[in-house]
Amino acid sequence: MPDIDIDFVDREKALKHFKHIRASRVDDGKLVKHNTGVYMHEVPVNAELNLCSVPHKEAEDQGYFKLDFLNVSIYKDVRDENTCKN
Questions:
Q1: What does the angle CA 46 – CA 58 – CA 65 come to, to the nearest 5 degrees?
Q2: Is there a contact between 66 and 37 (Cβ–Cβ < 8 Å)?
Q3: By the 8 A CB rule, do 56 and 36 touch?
Q4: Nearest residue to 52 (alpha-carbon basis) of 61, 63, 64
């Protein structure tokens, strides 16, 4: 399944509305938080880190799919969607 990216002015505010678990990646042999990825369905969880216990590249191979909730700061200045003026 392809990556799904969703743009937000403030990703943390958006995530408060959804039950989710943060995706993980491996850095220097350690499991760490993925910068933008989350899972909205059940995945194996590392309770100590509160992350998916399967790194996102391996998780995809196992049939899990992540969503990337992205901060797009340019949106914060849009006041009128029709004219794109402040």
A1: 85
A2: yes
A3: no
A4: 64
Residues recorded for the chain = 86
Q: Which tens digit of pLDDT belongs to each residue from 44-75?
A: 999 999 999 999 999 999 999 999 999 887 66
CA trace torsion 33, 7, 12, 25 (10° rounding): 0
Instruction: Give the residue carrying structure tokens 């491996």.
Output: 26
Sorted by where each begins, the domain ranges of the chain are 4-77
**Cα dist from 60 to 15, 67, 74, 80, whole Å:** 21, 11, 30, 38
Given a cut of 80, whether residue 80 has pLDDT beyond it is no
Model confidence, pTM: 0.80
Instruction: To the nearest 10°, report the CA torsion of 59, 28, 12, 8.
Output: -70
